[in-house]
Amino acid sequence: MSDNTFAIPNWRKNIYLFLFGQFMSGITSMVVQYAIIWYLTKETGSATVLSFATLLGMLPMVLLSPFVGPFVDRTNKKFLLIVPDIIAAIFAIILSIVGIINKDFPLWLIFVSLLVRSIAQTFQMPTIQSIMPTMVPKEQITKMNGQLGMVQSANMIIAPALGAFLFSIVPIAYLILLDVVGAIVGVVIIMFVIIPENPVYDEKIHVLSDVKFGLDQLRGNRGLWYITLMGTAFTLLFMPAASMYPLMTMSYFHGTVAQAGIIEVVYSVGMLAGGAVIGFFGNWSDRMKPILNSIWVMGISFAISGVLPGNSNGFLWFVALNTIAGLATPFFNTLLMAMIQESYPPENLGRVLGILNSLMSISGPVGLVFAGPLADKFGVNSLFIIGGIGTLLCGLFVLLVPVTRNYDKELQKKIS
User: Taking every annotated instance into account, which residue ranges of this chain make up the domain Major facilitator superfamily (MFS) profile (predicted)?
Assistant: First the structure.
């Protein structure tokens, strides 16, 4: 399908308006997210509290994704993007009011707020993933996923720096209201974006049978099924370390909130650079090769990070290694998502993505249950060593199993 015959007139203008809306709503949400995590880190200094906060952020993705998928396939997409933003904004207002009145936040209310934000994302993420193939010509899917990744990386670059600055000068009870501003801007922009609806839009939803359908579709595709299982193992080993970035900087390297922000920024700068390569040059004949290379780079970077000395020189190396790991990250996430989007028709994507997102997230909470106690007992750096070695083992699995290693080659044959 060429640019000239694609169903949406001026599709580039339409998709860039959509990406701009994602940037505006995403950056305000992430500033607030970082502010909350830094508040918890500063007030408690506990790895267990941080891991529990991250656990709350992941549980909805694990438990609800399979049941969200059928709604994504058969519900108005704008509705699924707008309503969660509004609900998250309402809870931000409640949290802010309580903070202003009490001069502090009850820990339980922060956890409830994080849970609601995660539920909102559980609806929005598969919706965005499923509509991308309907908004751009097929030959542009990999590149546009790369540019979506660039937008998300840009958010991750700006949000920690902006969040650290605002956290230092604005009371957090007022800073939380930035989430409301972002929701308003995001909702207004989405109203002007053209989002095609699936032909099954009016079909009745049968949740359990639809969940089974998504699982059967995924399991019937052996290569993608094995990649999903590999991703599940990867999450189990990687997520505990990923949840400890603030504590790694502030406890192990004896850094500040600003330095914790620097780590988030450099990782995201790397992701932006990697996303730019995909977004503008993303036409690989075999996308499994750059995916495999990204796994090696992330694994080595994480493993080395765990054995660095806990001083200022070690922190500088930590900055460099996270920049490199960030550069590799989009090649795994973005190229895998492009392959998934090309593997199923758009009207089935929501149900398949619901199962896939749940399976690739399900081991994260399991790892996080042990992350806090392990970090408190053996040191937070040990989680980076475990994550790095585990990532390398996942790469070895992809390399040694032909149906995963050759998945994209076979997919391209089917498409052509």
Answer: 14-406
